[in-house]
């Protein structure tokens, strides 16, 4: 048993230093060294109120400069640093260490279903190909340049408000079991971005986009596992958006 | 020192020796069936839509048909011990039960076939694997449906 004096000293020491020791277990892959991906542990002294991204920065800046990952704005807007943290797709810049049980090692892996190029960096090209394939831009039939802005009622804007929040981080698509097995599936992110224009009253190519998503690799491959909704760092109801596209396809047909 | 290196080169990589380097990087593991610019575009068919709808509608009908079937066969009137040739012959004497069993056969087989088709589509990576698994699936489905239909319509209670 420690004396009361020691207890007090310990408490003071803890109050003075917010730092705790956290183990980061990072999935490393460097094709220039080995063909095998391996787990590597890093011990960090870090404030649990900091984010996983801060931990990765600390590793890269102070422990091992070869650690490779994407990040740009570091504030949850650019969508560069989606990764699989403790087995769940999240943005490293929006995940606080205290929220993911720092007593145990924190595992950090690249997102699944896309080719790993180095450490946490994956080839996003198939993801963006699916995005391009749904034509994520305004299409109107009038050929003349408009002379004033395209007005829209607040209700019409509200219809697709949820899907405008997408930052294309690929957390949803790379959490989808159908996408893991068959990358030909458009994936939740592409469908979300199609939804954003299909239900926009100003857009006139909804029919075309519905036709694209009616394909064998389109919305009908969705198994409603809700992985995408759970993974979305922006809180978009992804599965609901996919269901709305399904409903639009059925009501269009019947 | 030098002898170790020559043996190592002769028998391939040994533990600790670097096989891959900057000029000779390891191959990355490609995802199966990636979407590329060459991925075929829309086929403009509604097959997947009908397939999806069929699964939902047949599922609802099958809940009634199958649970009713199980209730009659296994629970009511003495349970499973009553089932015999005579029991089946007695039920199939009525066109209602013939129709019931026919609907159950077709819906369950097509429902299961479509379900397995989506499983094959999801999990079989190579084009040839897909082709053969689906060929096997469709053959088994058609055979079972045709045989079952034949039996329901040509059933002879006086057969010896």
TrEMBL record, chain A:
Assigned keywords, A-Z: 2Fe-2S, 3Fe-4S, 4Fe-4S, Iron, Iron-sulfur, Metal-binding, Oxidoreductase, Tricarboxylic acid cycle
Entry-linked InterPro entries: 2Fe-2S_ferredoxin-like_sf, 2Fe-2S_ferredoxin-type, 4Fe4S_Fe-S-bd, 4Fe4S_Fe_S_CS, Beta-grasp_dom_sf, Helical_ferredxn, SDH/FRD_Iron-Sulfur, Succ_DH/fum_Rdtase_Fe-S
Domain 4Fe-4S ferredoxin-type positions: 156-178
Keyword 4Fe-4S: yes
PROSITE patterns xref list: 2FE2S_FER_2 (PS51085), 4FE4S_FER_1 (PS00198), 4FE4S_FER_2 (PS51379)
UniProt pathway: Carbohydrate metabolism; tricarboxylic acid cycle
Tagged with keyword Hydrolase: no
Assigned EC number: 1.3.5.1
Family: Belongs to the succinate dehydrogenase/fumarate reductase iron-sulfur protein family.
Official protein name in the record: Fumarate reductase iron-sulfur subunit
Organism, scientific name: Streptomyces tropicalis
From TrEMBL, chain B:
CDD domains: SQR_TypeA_SdhD_like
Keywords in alphabetical order: Heme, Iron, Membrane, Metal-binding, Transmembrane, Transmembrane helix
Membrane-spanning intervals of the chain: 53-76, 96-114, 135-155
Cellular compartment(s): Membrane
Keyword Protein transport applies: no
Organism superkingdom: Bacteria
Keyword Transmembrane helix: yes
Gene3D superfamilies linked: Fumarate reductase/succinate dehydrogenase, transmembrane subunit
Protein name in the entry: Succinate dehydrogenase hydrophobic membrane anchor subunit
């Amino acid at each position: 048993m420690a004396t009361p004096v020691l207890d007090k000293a310990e408490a003071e020491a803890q109050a003075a230093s917010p730092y705790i020791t956290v183990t980061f277990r990072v999935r490393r892959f460097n094709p220039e060294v080995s063909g095998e991906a391996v787990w590597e542990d890093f011990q960090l002294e870090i404030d649990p109120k900091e984010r996983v991204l801060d931990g990765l920065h600390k590793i890269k800046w102070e422990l091992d400069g070869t650690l490779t990952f994407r990040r740009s704005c570091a504030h949850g807007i650019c969508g560069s640093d989606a990764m699989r943290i403790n087995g769940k797709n999240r943005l490293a810049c929006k995940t606080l260490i205290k929220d993911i049980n720092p007593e145990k090692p924190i595992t950090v892996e690249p997102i699944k279903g896309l080719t790993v190029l180095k450490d946490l960096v994956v080839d996003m090209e198939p993801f963006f190909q699916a995005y391009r394939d749904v034509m994520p831009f305004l299409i109107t039939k009038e050929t003349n340049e408009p002379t004033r802005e395209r007005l829209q009622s607040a209700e019409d804007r509200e219809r697709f408000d949820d899907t405008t929040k997408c930052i294309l981080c690929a957390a949803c698509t790379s959490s989808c079991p159908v996408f893991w097995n068959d990358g030909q599936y458009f994936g939740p992110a592409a469908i979300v971005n199609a939804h954003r224009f299909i239900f926009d009253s100003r857009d006139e190519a909804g029919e075309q986009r519905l036709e694209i998503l009616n394909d064998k690799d389109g919305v009908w491959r969705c198994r409603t596992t809700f992985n995408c909704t759970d993974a979305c760092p922006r809180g978009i109801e992804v599965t609901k958006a996919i269901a709305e596209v399904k409903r639009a396809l059925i009501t269009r047909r019947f | 020192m030098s002898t170790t290196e020559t043996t190592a080169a002769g028998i391939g990589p040994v533990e600790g020796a670097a096989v891959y380097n900057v000029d000779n990087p390891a191959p990355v593991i490609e995802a199966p069936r990636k979407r590329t610019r060459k991925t075929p575009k829309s086929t403009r068919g509604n097959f997947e839509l009908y397939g999806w709808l069929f699964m939902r509608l047949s599922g609802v009908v099958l809940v009634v048909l199958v649970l009713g079937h199980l209730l009659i066969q296994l629970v009511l009137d003495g349970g499973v011990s009553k089932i015999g040739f005579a029991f089946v012959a007695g039920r199939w004497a009525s066109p209602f039960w013939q129709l019931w069993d026919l609907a159950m056969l077709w819906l369950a087989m097509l429902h299961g076939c479509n379900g397995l088709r989506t499983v094959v589509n999801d999990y079989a990576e190579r084009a040839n694997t897909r082709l053969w698994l689906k060929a096997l699936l469709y053959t088994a489905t058609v055979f079972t449906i045709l045989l079952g239909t034949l039996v329901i319509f040509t059933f002879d209670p006086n057969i010896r």
